[in-house]
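Input for the complex:
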Amino acid sequence: MQAATGAPLLAVERVTKQYKNVRALDDVSFTITDGITGILGENGAGKSTIIKILLGLLHPTSGSAKILGLDASRDVAARARVGYMPEHDCLPSEVSAAEFLTHMGEVSGLPPDVARTRAADTLRHVGLFEERYRAIGGYSTGMKQRVKLCQSLVHDPAFVFLDEPTAGLDPSGREEMLTLIRKTHREFGISVLFSSHLMADVERTCDRIIILQGGRLVRSGEVAQFTRETETVFIEVDTNRESLVSALERRGVVVTAEGGGLTVQGTDGSVFDQVRDALVEAEAPLRRMAPRRRELTELFEREVQSK
Amino acid sequence: MTGTVFDIGYQRYTGAREGRSRGRKAVFKDGIRIALGLGRGGRAKILPWFSIAALSGLGLIFALMAGAAKALAGTAQAAKMDLPSHSDYNGVAAVMMFVFAALVGPELLCRDRRDGVIHLYLVRPLTGTDYVASRWAAFLAVMTAAAWVPQIILFLGLSMGDPRPADYLAAHWLDVPRFLAAGLAMSAYTTTLALLVASFTTRRAYASVFLVGLFVITTPFTVGLSQEIEGPVGTWISMFSLTSIPVHVNDLIFGEISEMTDKIPARLLPAWVLVGWWLAWVVVPGMVLWYRYRKLTP
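Predicted:
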């Protein structure tokens, strides 16, 4: 989905943010269209700064950041079509989820009767319909995270920012949240920018990723493209492992030891042929051989180290 | 009879979006609900409703005293007595109004910052100025109602207690705009100070204790000091009796000195000084409050 003007949903163009002695963002540019985009980076990489600039809570020192073709710091109305789920606690404890969401819907500009209906509907979609009249203070961590997601969706935004949405959740709660995030885009049609330090979550949920490091954009692109570029073959043999490594290296194959096995770069047909020949030459009995996509974690570490 | 429930899935919203004005109204409405404890547990309702009941009770007591005096001594004799009336009400109720503002006002700002809800407001079509102005207006509305309702009770009581209510209304109709203006002066002052102090802490209790201390301590301290020092310096020191500032304005509106300000040297200062002093205590804290929230959004 594109903005009505045909512009990308989010467009960041040469954004720099300079504090007194710290450059939080340095000449960062990217665009985001429809889908789920993950933004990865260590603490201080600039993830929160870029989100705050996009939401209009900070002015960039130079460059421009637009949501749906609008600068949210100058045009507050742009925020009516954007949702934000912060990482930190942001829920009142004394009011019910239904009342809180109705209020947040109204604050986003919905008429009161519409806000009430949408609050109930949104709670139903995240599985909290039965609990909607209970005070939020009595909810579990997982339920509170779902209420936080709900408040970002209650006004039916075109785009939603999720800041560490799985933080503090147990494995089942984390799985539920990731399912809801996928549902947010695939069923609700709302595009997502998802910031996380858990790369497994990003890898499983996102269509695209943006990697930030020290305020600079390290890399951005499709998740599939990232992992395809790093496809490897994992080999495990019973004996003669050292001979096999030598045989592979003589054939020009890049091989690295990994645990009890070996990892060979590339998955095209010639690599398999070379592995076969090397196994024969080294007389190494093959136990297991399988293509393996390198995890985003490794890729992230490699990209960051190379910078 | 049986029915089938269909899940029609997520529905996109294509209706009207009322933008910033709806956001402001929602924050205003929510502020009133917080101040009165509506939609919250029973404990949240105790303080505001007890305070409003106590203030209204004061108006009722004034009316009953006037009614009893008329019934026992006759209208002519009662008119000669110095019975408490509209002009005296704000002087007597000032401390209760300040305590009400100190206990309830901080709830409108502190909790949003402590719970982090403020961050959700500021990413919506709303600026820091919109938020704090709406909260200020909401508490002003509650404080104004708390100032006006007892005076309305008193006015109705005095009218109905008179043998000729129509004659009473004709003779005293000017009390109505006077007590409305005096109530507004009181509520604008207490609202602004309470919210300013609240903007410096996330804990309501800290703000409340500080405000009660400020209001309760400054009056005996400054009045005692001014009586010791005397002269112009003493008069200016007595200006810092924070509970008296809106009561001086009340005195000017009604054209008579109330019992509370009777011993405060500042009562002798020109009217423009007293009104200007009150205005300064509303505008300057209001500007500081506005600045503190304005800087939250660019």
